[in-house]
Amino acid sequence: MRPQEPPVTAVQQEARRRRWLRLPLALLAMAVVVIGLLALVIGVPTLWRYSGESVQHYADPETHFLHGSIGSEVSGLPVRLWRVLPALFPDVFDDRHYEVFGFLYAPGDDASRGDLPIGLGTREVRGVEIAWFNCALCHVGTVRDSPEASPRQISGMPSNNLDLHGFISFLLEAADDPRLAPERVLDEMDAQGQRLGWIERQVWRYAVLPQVREGLLETRATLAPLLDKQPPWGPGRVDTFNPYKLLQFDMDVAELDEAERIGTSDFPAIFLQRPRQGMDLHWDGNNASLQERNLSAAIGAGVTEESVDHAGIERVADWLLDLEPPPSPYRPDPEGVAAGKPLYMRHCADCHGYQDGERYVFAGERLGQVVPNDLLGVDPARLDSYTETLQRYQMTLFEDDERYRFRHFRNTDGYANLPLDGLWLRAPYLHNGAVPTLYDLLLPPAERPPAFVRGLDVLDEEKGGFVAPDCTPGEPLAEGFCFDTSEPGNGRQGHLYGTELTAQERSDLLNYLLTF
Fold first, then answer.
1. Contact criterion met (CB below 8 Å) for 186 and 205
2. What sign does the dihedral 282-306-255-214 (CA atoms) show?
């Protein structure tokens, strides 16, 4: 039975407790005390390594975006453990290292040398280097012009590769696996040349690794009941707010209404943030503040009120203000483009802005505004997942700091009209990624594919988007993920704009959209 305390106090107390549980610092401090006298004999320098905190600074803002810390490491894993997990679980990683879950590596990096994927920031805390998620994890993807071409990494596009659900599920399942026992981990570290001194080895055996396992077990107890009720997210998707409710605010799955338990949606593109200032942000338009949206996303990545690196987050945010998407590589029929632009301006521009040659124009009477879902008619699950209860809890965050206190979150009744800059990089389409290509989006919902392959990065030159063959749910695939639109939250209905056009008009409109 929980104590009957005011909601804000209970949230704050539980949040603080969880933050400390995630950190190995308390047990590290105990270990240092226990072996302190011995350390004086063996050598003070080793003991000194277990004090203080440091974080790497990257001069180039894009490098910081890819590898820099935002303060999420309190929720993360030691870097040494990241390096040995693929060897400890070969049945899961299959010699592909973290690429098996869609993680990407920077050009020139090599997992076999111990390099970490992009999207992980690192921070040394009392001698232990810890890594966890940053902005790039969800906002860097790849494209290929043909199956034979090498993938191009593009910062700012949605991650079309990342299977975050698969990776989190793996960690939670591994929490009590014998292969994660301290001796097994330490032996593998030795085999990789990650040798520790005697004192360090004892700290890792009795403090660091047991605390990691305890944290994973606690997270599994909290999060697994939710994940068990959801269909797998698939690559390129995340449930934004439901894990937030459980991990940040200690809500229980049983407290969540059935309608709010599935809020899975696509990772968004994050190009050109400056023109978006003042627009309704997030898929449901629940906040018009870029700063609050960014800080909320950081909390979703594992940042806490105590660990947040405001300078790191703001540095990335400043860089994103003017980050332009690369121009569309498609070469549509010029006559079709000329015929399609007037159709777009008549049917679409008020809500989404328009493309003028190679320049995207952020102009439209309803651009960046919420359209009630009673009119839009798309899958409501993501909208329903953001509740008044969550909004009240969010308003308790950073309440003692006027610079960062949340003020602008609100409930809406629909989805926001988003600008379409870099549209060619955003497939699949709709907020939940339920429609594979632009061609399919212009079809009536009943004619859109009921199941298709996600997670591929080869461009579809005719339909606009990525190649997404039909698939049969439950049958194995050589690559990719079979996305089933009949699953809860995956509906392909709604957004009927353009579906009433003739076949020729739809073809012309598609030609114009291919220029975005």
1. yes
2. positive
Q: Could you tell me which of 20, 21, 15 has the C-alpha nearest to residue 214?
A: 21
Phi first, then psi: give them for residue 275, nearest 5 degrees: -65, -15
Asked whether the CA dihedral 244, 245, 248, 251 is positive or negative, the reply is negative
Taken as a whole, the chain contains a residue count of 516
**Whose CA is closest to 328, among 346, 351, 355, 347?**
355
Question: How confident is residue 50, by pLDDT bands cut at 50, 70 and 90?
Answer: low
Question: Which residues does residue 493 pair with via DSSP β-bridges, in sequence order?
Answer: none
Helix 182-191 to helix 209-227 angle (10° resolution) is 110
* Residue percentage of the chain with pLDDT more than 90: 86
Give the pLDDT score at 41: 32
> What are the phi and psi torsion angles at 409 (to 5°)?
-65, 145
- State the CB neighbour count (10 A cutoff) for residue 110: 9
Site of tokens 């990342």? 162
For 122, 125, 403, 411, the CA distances from 56, given in Å and listed in that order, are 7, 12, 25, 38
Nearest to 24 by CA among 123, 128, 120, 116: 128
DSSP 307-360: T--HHHHHHHHHHHTT-PPPPP-----HHHHHHHHHHHHHHTHHHH-EEETTEE
Model confidence over 421-465: pLDDT tens digits?
A: 999 999 999 999 999 999 999 999 999 999 999 999 999 999 999
Q: Is pTM beyond 0.85 here?
A: yes
- The whole-number pLDDT of residue 51 equals 56
**Helix 79-88 × helix 182-191 angle, to 10°:** 90
Question: Rounded to whole angstroms, how far apart are CA atoms 102 and 454?
Answer: 12
Instruction: Provide the angle, in degrees to the nearest 10, between the axes of the packed helices 242-249 and 290-300.
Output: 70
The candidate with the shortest Cα–Cα distance to 434, out of 265, 270, 295, 288, is: 265
Query: 20-34, 51-65, 276-290: which range is least confident on average?
Result: 20-34
By the 8 A CB rule, do 158 and 138 touch?
A: yes
What are the DSSP calls for 245-269, one per residue?
HHHHH---GGGS-GGGS--EEEPPP
CA distance linking residue 153 with residue 167, whole number of Å: 21
